[in-house]
Amino acid sequence: MAGLGFPAEAPSVYEFPIEMFFADSDLTPLKENIDKIVYGLTKWEPTIKEKGVFAAPKVTVTGGDYEKALTTMGHLFLKNLWSEGLPITPATKEKVDWILTGTDLSRDAIVGEGKILPRGGVASVEAIAVALAMAGGRPEYLPVLIAAVEAFTKPEFGHESMNATTNSVAPAMIVNGPIAREIRLGSGYGCLGPHPIYPAGSAIGRASRLILLNLGGGIPGIGSMALFGGFRVTNVVFAEDEAGLPEGWEPLAVDRGFPRGANVVTVTPVASQTNIAVANPIGTKEDNDATLWGVAKHMNPHSSNAHRKDVDTKKPDLAAGVVLLARGLAQTLAEASGYSKRDVKKVLWENTKIPWSEVVKVNLEQQAENAGISPGQDLPLTDNPDQLMIVVAGGEQSRHQLWMGVGHSNYTVVSAEIQLPANWDELLAQAEEDLGSLPAD
Predict the structure, then answer these.
(1) What does the H/E/C string look like for 159-177?
(2) Domain segments of the chain: what residues?
(3) I need a surface site. Which of 69, 195, 241, 309 has the fewest CB within 10 A?
(4) Which of 301, 349, 324 is closest to 402 using CA atoms?
(5) Whole-model pTM?
């Protein structure tokens, strides 16, 4: 209701039991309340006429001492569905003001398209800073989080579907440019998980989840119907290992149309994370092709966007999934096989096709027809190889690769350039003083 612009006092709200939306369900609640629904849609008018961004009143929490006050605050936030269940850092005025030193934008500025759906909370700079403060973030993380919100609120991304769907999908955010190392965002060993040396990914990811939860209403079973809710604590935020890119391979940001060296965040939905252990030796072209074949066999095309009649499968930014290649494998593919990044995409794409015999065996004929595939032809993962995303990240070894699939959803990959504040050097100097120097590459 809020996402559609209705105020909280709308009397036309009626909560229907979830069982009513199952097949062959009892529609009696709908029949019994149809008069209320008709009234709400045709005659009701709100008493509140103003529109705009209104600051919520401050919350005061007390306790016998600071520790008890923190515990009370945690309970209060859980009761009001304001946190995801983990302990939070109090977003005091002082803390939020400190976070806001990470941007030159005013605290009232609206980021991107503004509303985070389905609830429709407004993504002001201050609201984003509050989420980052709650997540234990720092000012130098704020430019990345602002750019991420700008990206995933673009209409073509369809974040309202991502936040509400039954598909356990969540945003993966991939950062390019020097900002990644400057803010301690991991690109090597353990880049998808918590990391004491590179803590930025966990904080930014958790803050983005709080934004989708508190502003967007993505509460499991209420605003979000994701059956399993993968990545629903910290989302996925990591950097590309640009130092490990083979000669001739460009970073993801360049693939997305930005100049090399630009600070860019690219957002794509992901619904799975499949670790792929490569058993083949690496070295010759034959070995490398066998390795890529093994990777391709884990890239499941059964639920690909290319199989949906309601999706423009030829649009270049269609989200199909992300292949993470460790730098060791990427460099071997380039040096031993002479493969460009697009060559790798073509090999993977060719080897993800489902033979027609298997299409028939698993009842995918309708999906094949939707994708324009004639009987007897192989069924591909996407319309073309360029719709696959390849990112070099992870440790320097070559034994394991990663596939992050999207699932059966109509999403587009989006990117946004990260804007740095005028005091950037001062923020980085303070971070080094607080956290120490990073180890050498």
Answers:
(1) HHHHHHCCCCCEEEEEEEC
(2) 89-245+423-429, 272-408
(3) 309
(4) 324
(5) 0.90
